[in-house]
Every structure is written in structure tokens, then in C-alpha cells.
UniProtKB/TrEMBL annotation:
Keyword Signal: yes
Keyword annotations from UniProtKB, A to Z: Signal
InterPro entries according to UniProt: CusF_Ec, CusF_sf
Residues of the signal peptide: 1-21
Organism expressing this protein natively: Enhydrobacter aerosaccus
The protein's name in its UniProt record: Cu and Ag efflux protein CusF
Length: 96
């Protein structure tokens, strides 16, 4: 019973804490924008939720409209996740 209560309390804290909201955001520089392919090349820091080191790589984007807001050389923050087996940018935030 105690373990169940502890798990529920921990879940409530994690879900309501704003500090956890951007826990997967990663700083990056836009290297290339490929609108026809729906992809962006980013030079990024470590992506903890994907256990990935810092590197430069090509990502798919969840929403092609994201590419309209990106320019080569721009500093951004982004969130990536696996979508249908492909590492995909699912959120783009303010630069750093």
C-alpha cells in the first residue's frame, strides 16, 4: 500500500512541476533546412532521452511547418523523440 501511495505522489509531483516540462529540450545550431524532404540538420548537444551524444545529424520533423521558422546559423532549443522508428524533432523552442 505504501509503495502505491509513493508512486502516485511521485507521479503527481513530476506531472505538475514546471521544472520537468522542458527536461528534454536540447540546444542546437541549425546547419541546413531541407523543406522538400521535411528534414533539418542540427549541430546539437547531448539528447538524454535518446541516450545520444552531441553531434551533427539530420532529423525528420513532426510538422513540416516547423521548417518555415528555421534559418541556417540560428540557435534553437528542440526536443526529439522516436516517431515510427525515426528520430524526429517534435518541438522547437526559443534559441539560447
Amino acid at each position: 500500500m505504501f509503495r502505491m501511495i509513493a508512486k502516485i505522489a511521485l507521479a503527481a509531483i513530476l506531472l505538475t512541476s514546471p521544472a520537468w516540462a522542458d527536461g528534454n529540450m536540447v540546444k542546437a545550431e541549425v546547419v541546413k533546412v531541407d523543406k522538400p524532404a521535411g528534414k533539418v540538420t542540427l549541430k546539437h548537444g547531448p539528447i538524454k532521452n535518446l541516450d545520444m551524444d552531441a553531434m551533427t545529424m539530420v532529423f525528420r520533423v513532426a510538422d513540416p511547418a516547423m521548417l518555415d521558422k528555421l534559418k541556417v546559423g540560428q540557435q534553437i532549443e528542440f526536443e526529439a523523440d522516436r516517431v515510427n522508428g525515426a528520430i524526429t524533432v517534435v518541438k522547437v523552442g526559443k534559441g539560447h
